[in-house]
């Protein structure tokens, strides 16, 4: 009976105030306003923003959404003031009851809405004045650091003596170096591509392209990262210092490649896998071409697989702005090409392990890695940005399988 009464009062309210219907469907707005009629309008807005918008972050798009929400409310405040409190409560209770029934039946009206994205750890824990710099270094997206760090870890573990663990200090140094160099590379990329990034949907919110940071601030941050990286480089032997410093030529020139060639992913492979050479040199003080050249080649082929998949996210925008990529070069033959790169990657890793005299656990883990890479290539939907991104991120597991194989194969040798 009670439920029937509140539903009836809700119908009366809708007939009398037809424009009030949207507020009835938003119970937290009603209670936020009805709990304290004497408070200021600003306090109501703050209450609703907290209750209704937990995902409102400090980005420009979030502030825009908050502004739209406030304007929507202001148009309804006078209407709320003119309604009896009991009627407001009844209508809200009715709305909540009906929604509860729909949820029990599996028919919630909001089941097809896009899910709210959780805030990244950068937005949660980094001080607000440092947040643009953390986003510029892509600290909120660690997959790039993993992809840069794995070839370093492979090489350091390859260089370990038979039956021994890899040098843990070197693994830690190269891990920190991967964070810094990846951040520096992203900063260089955003500085050089700022006029392109603001025309591409996925990149237009980046700090420099969106105007959150000026080019001078980006350049200053780049210098800071390189200075920290120099501190790590100076802890290596002389040969490794020269070899490591030479990689900066690749880092600074890579962002320009997409303007001149359809193969920027190959150039990225040369850049991102430099650690396959540097890791061995840091342990042994020289290079063993029989081991490190196949290892470096495997990394380049691997990059051609995952970054071609990644490039398919932006292919429409790339066509509009005139940017080149292997995704555009390969077109509908992409899976054929990346299948060939995948086979070449695994074959090169097998050759490197054979020349390093690793034992059977290496080849067992390499088989698992090959399966993971094959799954990516076979199952990726190149027309779906979301699926391309998922497959791209999954490459951290390919790197982990290979590292596990090298570690176990070295311990068993």
UniProtKB/TrEMBL annotation:
Its cofactor is Mg(2+). GO terms for molecular function: 4-hydroxybenzoate geranyltransferase activity; 4-hydroxybenzoate polyprenyltransferase activity. Its EC number is 2.5.1.39. One of its GO terms (cellular component) is mitochondrial inner membrane. Pathway: Cofactor biosynthesis; ubiquinone biosynthesis. It catalyses: 4-hydroxybenzoate + (2E)-geranyl diphosphate = 3-geranyl-4-hydroxybenzoate + diphosphate; an all-trans-polyprenyl diphosphate + 4-hydroxybenzoate = a 4-hydroxy-3-(all-trans-polyprenyl)benzoate + diphosphate. It comes from the Eukaryota. The chain crosses the membrane at residues 143-160, 172-192, 212-233, 266-283, 289-312. Residues 94-115 are annotated as: Disordered. InterPro entries: HB_polyprenyltransferase-like, Prenyltransferase, UbiA_prenyltransferase, UbiA_prenylTrfase_CS, UbiA_sf. GO terms for biological process: isoprenoid biosynthetic process; ubiquinone biosynthetic process. Its main location: membrane. Pfam families: UbiA (PF01040). It is a multi-pass membrane protein. It is found in: Membrane; Mitochondrion inner membrane. Keywords: Isoprene biosynthesis, Membrane, Mitochondrion, Mitochondrion inner membrane, Transferase, Transmembrane, Transmembrane helix, Ubiquinone biosynthesis. Residues 98-115 have a biased composition (Basic and acidic residues). NCBIfam families: ubiA_proteo. Belongs to the UbiA prenyltransferase family. Catalyzes the prenylation of para-hydroxybenzoate (PHB) with an all-trans polyprenyl group. Mediates the second step in the final reaction sequence of coenzyme Q (CoQ) biosynthesis, which is the condensation of the polyisoprenoid side chain with PHB, generating the first membrane-bound Q intermediate. This is 4-hydroxybenzoate polyprenyltransferase, mitochondrial. It comes from Spirodela intermedia. The lineage of its organism: Eukaryota, Viridiplantae, Streptophyta, Embryophyta, Tracheophyta.
